[in-house]
Predict the 3D structure of the following.
Amino acid sequence: MKNWVYAKLDKISKFDMYNISEKNKDSLKLDANENYVLKKKFILEIALQAAKDTDLREYPLDQFKELYRQLAKYTGISKKYIAVGNGSDQIIELILSIINKGQRVTIFTPTFSYFINRCKFHDLTVDRVPLSRENNALDKGEFLKSAKRSDIVYICSPNNPTGNQFDKQPILEIIDSLKDKLVLLDEAYVEFADYSLIQVAIKYDNVIVLRTLSKAFGLAGARVGYFIANERFAQIFRSKIQSPYPLNSLSLTIASIALSQFNYVNKTVKMIKDERKRVFDQISRIEGIKAFESNANFIFFESHNKYNAILKSLKKERLAVKTFGNVEGRMGCIRVTIGTKNMNDRFLESIERAVCKQNV
């Protein structure tokens, strides 16, 4: 047994690692798309209320019922179409675990690297269709050509890391053309975007829309994800695929309270969208930098030959961003989370200083 176990581990050890951002003391964290516009006091009050209402000696039962009730109210979708997980990452993992080895997956690139990593882990063949180098648009024809030969299709919209939400009509046409494929729509950032397809998902037998409370709701540490799908898939996932207690009582209660206070959360979403436009406009005015339009809570941009100078300046001023380097023809790529006005000003001032120094 030892030989086959270590042979498998050797294979796994060669996979690309999903890089988890580190939190350094005194650094400003703009690398993981967390919602810092949401007041820490708001989250703290929710957590304290949840702690008072929770008996950790008991398994979570009523807490699950309440979360499903709140999710149904928030989404406008009956709870019979909803299932929850320990973050959308865990849901992705479980869905991929029921797919046979060697089956083919179509994705576009660049996209959410965790999904690609997990496909490799489960021995799935990944076919990549590049997004437009100019504006990260999706070529529907090329994508469908690949998707029709695959078993699973993954569409992240708004897309991570590029930030753009794809035009609704082409996505609907893609879904309608792939009724014999499993279509995963990742809407982790949809609260910052223009539309959602959750109402579409329940009309098809093969569509799953992945959602999370980690972004807009500021609950990245609580690890609460969910999906919307047809009733049969949701029911089987809840009762057969998912573990009996995938979320702890505190996370469940915190999530339920946060959902019940969406009006405040939505105010922070609007503030982020306003700041997103301001940051985009200001980055776009810097010579030699190309920013891409975003429908998420971050901006993705090319810094070309200014990449190293910008990273040096950001590091000196303890500003953490997500760095990609060169990505499929895009040069010196950086992704920055949209934070508070003060956070965004510090970031903008830093990169402007770096560019000015380089131009001297």
